[in-house]
Write a structure and sequence with these properties.
The complex is a heterodimer of chains A (about 170) and B (about 120). Chain A has about 170 residues and is an all-alpha fold. Helix content of chain A is about 80%, strand content about 0%. Chain B has helices at about 5-20, 30-40, 50-60, 65-105. The chains are: A mainly alpha (about 170), B mainly alpha (about 120). Chains A and B meet through helix 1, helix 2, helix 3 and helix 4 of A and helix 3 and helix 4 of B.
Chain lengths: ~170, ~120
Amino acid sequence: MKKGGLILLFGLLLGTAGFSGFYYLGTAPCRSMIHGPQPELAWLKKEFALSDAEFARISALHEAYVPQCAERCRVTEQQNRKLKELLAKNPTVTPEIQNLLDERARNRAQCEAEMLKHFQEVSRAMPPEQGRRYLAWVQEQTVLRGQAMENRHKMGGGGHMMDMTKEPHL
Amino acid sequence: MNPNQNPDSDERLRSVLREWVVDAPLPPRFQEQVWKRIARAEAPSESSFWTALARLVEVVLPRPKIAFSYVAALLVLGVTAGSVTAQIKSSHLDATLRARYVQAVDPYRADSPQP
């Protein structure tokens, strides 16, 4: 029993050690990324196989872009708050509300243009093939895709576009 | 032939046994105890699984070929499970970081992660 028990225990220990070792080694790159200073940029480096020089350039671009983006977010937030207040006071669309909506739309358009410029700069800092891949991916992932509104109308949940597209067939 | 199995002595033994009278009293509830023992012996053993397992560990596992196969199988199982789990975990972390990058560059996606 003693010898058999020892073999049983040894097998279990070896199995556990194998599991732990391979799990530890397999997750090591991801763990080092997530505990790094900028995990999302570390992910970008890995995903698009960037060299250290390319990564440094892209990190600098990112560092320059983020504060500007935050400032535009602050402006948008102010506009949203003001719009809420005006809508609470007025039951109709006053010229002031109309102006604010125009302003907010301009801010959003500027925000999207700056975002696109940043993506293009980042893609240019990458090797050409990776840059093209990055640009295609990032445009697909971000609001630049603009699919939410299109889908809303395509789904027919009270959207008039669907009705319009159906009309010729009726 | 065994000398104890002599037909004459056998016959004598039989006659002695025929004359023998047991006058010692039976212990109390003797019959009930006997039936209980019979029932216990006939009932399927509840610990048969553990007995078999103990026998396996005690007798079968120490055989060199079996021991080697057992250890090798557990090692392969552990390594495979570790690799697969690490892969799942890595792809999950990868998706999280991807979503974090998108949120960092797109303020309109900040509240709606797209892993």
